[in-house]
Amino acid sequence: MYVILVYDVGEQRVSKMLKLCRQYLNWIQNSVFEGEITETKLLELVIRAKQIIVKERDSIILFKSREDRWLQKEVIGMEKNKLDTII
Amino acid sequence: MYVILVYDVGEQRVSKMLKLCRQYLNWIQNSVFEGEITETKLLELVIRAKQIIVKERDSIILFKSREDRWLQKEVIGMEKNKLDTII
Fold it and tell me: B73 and A65: CB-CB below 8 Å?
């Protein structure tokens, strides 16, 4: 399954979320991740994410697609994850 | 066409981008928008966005899908756009 994940969490929880999501998906921008993931792994990620977020304040949005070819990606401006691989 | 747009722009350009994107798409989280849009309107949005961003620093990512039913959305935590309609 192909997934886009975006999160909006309190500053104190950003680094934890970043670290968690990086274990499952590819970082593509600020708080945006994408990648191929199995149902099981995604469930694991969601369970772990729920332990980090404060559900009254933070939010995570998942867009799931059975196939990544159904989604066409376009980047305008700087492609941040290129930098990421350099660091 | 169904579109997810995420942007990461310098603080000074955030309010301009927010205002612009709101004219074309639905705000769903921080710097994340989604919605149905025509090719023409999307092109218009991209052209106007390019006038706002500093392309060496900022980035906009577009995920385009021919049909929204190919994408399943799941929100974990707080659904921010619900608040948005109240304000």
Answer: no
